[in-house]
Amino acid sequence: MQGVALLSIFFALVFANVPIAVSLGLSALAGLYIADFSFAMFPSIMYTAIGKFALLAIPFFILAGVIMEYAGISVRLIRFASVCVGHRRSGLISVVVIVACFFAAISGSGPATVAALGSILIPAMVRAGYDKGMATALMSASGGIGIIIPPSIAFVVYASIADVSVGALFSGGILPGLIVGLAYILAALYVSRNNENIIQQPKATAGERWAAFKDASWGLLTPVIILGGIYGGIFTPTEAAGVSVVYGLFVGIFIYKEIKFRDLWALFVDAAISSGVVMFIIASASVFAWLLTTSHIASDISSAMLNFGFNKVTMLLIINVIFLIAGCFLDANSAYYILIPILMPVISSMKVDPVHFGVFVTVNMAIGLITPPVGINLYVGCNIATLPVAEICRKIVPFVLAGVVALLIITYIPQITMFLPGILN
Asked: Cys-Cys with 284: which of 10, 24, 262, 388 at CB 3.0–4.6 Å?
């Protein structure tokens, strides 16, 4: 009864448009009162949840992403991708996805990727003859790759809940992220197949490509340093986050000279606000998840799912549907704390590797970033393009379908996810 009341209060607050973090916190406080627990447990559980060494990577990766944006790395990555593939008919479409994948390997955040790249790429696509709504939908969808391609904040949170290796999740997300990107390219090409207004860019010379590569090389080295250091055994994922901050400051201040010392205050404030929001969600969600566990509703739901006797194929499909629906209302961090404790026993009984599980549910949440009513990437894209949300919701449908096809491939072919972790381990 306590668990049912907890979930009912939470969803009532969500549907009343109360922010997710506040909904989690208020429903958790109500759950403590209903279960007759002391309110003093609330800060204790919150502190225990966020006081983990692995979670220290989150504010560092957020700070690194903000630094890279201030440093002008996004502009250089876009220029390099443009001179390489921009002359093809699918050029700018490919540029959007390729640069989103590269920037994802720096920021680890979907909305940050859309915000950093959209203000440049959406107007560029419009000038090249692409439909503005389609360009915004493509940018919003591609930004979701930010939580699949490592380093991913969502992977760090999942690892802390499921007690799996962050490094294994990072390597497992690379190929699925590229598959999702390819699916979005194909969807954009299909939507634009009859557009005769598209203007192809002139083919760049070898000298222009070399100049663009040299200018972008410091940005291209960022994921190499982060991932190479992790898999080379030089530092842990958390330490890699700190290294990325130092490297970003070095590049921004001394190489590109885009960051001035007077910019550091605004830069750190931006990162602190974003980090505070994420960590508050994690802290509130941890109390919520603890109440779900102590009320036994998590184990009851797990047992009920197993008692239905569905085969593995059907059960994985059901889990995907659950996360796709959750993605319409919740961010990845909140969904993980609510659903992972319920579904982990089900996954274990089906002998699904927790790394594979973590990757395909993260792909679900990446799709959730572009599904209304909450789809935050849509709102970021709409603000950049100054378009109504209703128009983007129509334009985003082909990309949602493409993402679901990629999701099913990743779900039912686990070798895609487990290939790189198997090699690197």
From this structure: 24
Two structure tokens written together for 155? 């992977």
Output the DSSP codes for 127-180: HTT--HHHHHHHHHHHHGGGGTSSS-HHHHHHHHHHT--HHHHHHHTHHHHHHH
Number of CB atoms found within 10 A of residue 164's CB: 18
List the helix and strand counts (H, then E) for the chain: 22, 0
Q: What is the dihedral of CA 167, 172, 176, 177, to 10 degrees?
A: 10
* pLDDT tens sequence across 168-200: 999 999 999 999 999 999 999 898 888 877 777
231: its two tokens: 């898999």
Residues 6+ apart with CB under 8 A from 390: none
Contact call for residues 383 and 114 (beta carbons, < 8 A): no
* Nearest-angstrom CA–CA distance, 26 and 40: 14
Phi, psi dihedral angles at 196 (to 5 degrees): -90, 0
* Interior angle at CA 102, CA 98 and CA 108, nearest 5: 125
Instruction: Report the 10 Å Cβ neighbour count for 386.
Output: 9
Rg (CA), the chain: 21
How many angstroms separate the CA atoms of 171 and 45, rounded? 31
Closest CA to 304 of 269, 342, 334: 342
* Assigned token pair, 51: 């006081």
Distance of CA 39 to the CA centre of its chain: 33
Q: For the segment 215-258, what is each residue's pLDDT rounded down to a tens digit?
A: 989 888 888 888 888 878 888 888 888 888 899 899 999 998 89
Amino acid at the residue 1: M
Q: Are 288 and 28 in contact (CB under 8 A)?
A: yes
Q: Could you give the dihedral angle defined by the CA atoms of residues 321, 325, 326 and 327, in that order, rounded to the nearest 10 degrees?
A: 100
Residues 161 and 340: their CA atoms lie apart, in Å, by 8
Whole-number Å distance between alpha carbons of 393 and 374: 11
Sign of CA dihedral 79, 64, 165, 275: negative
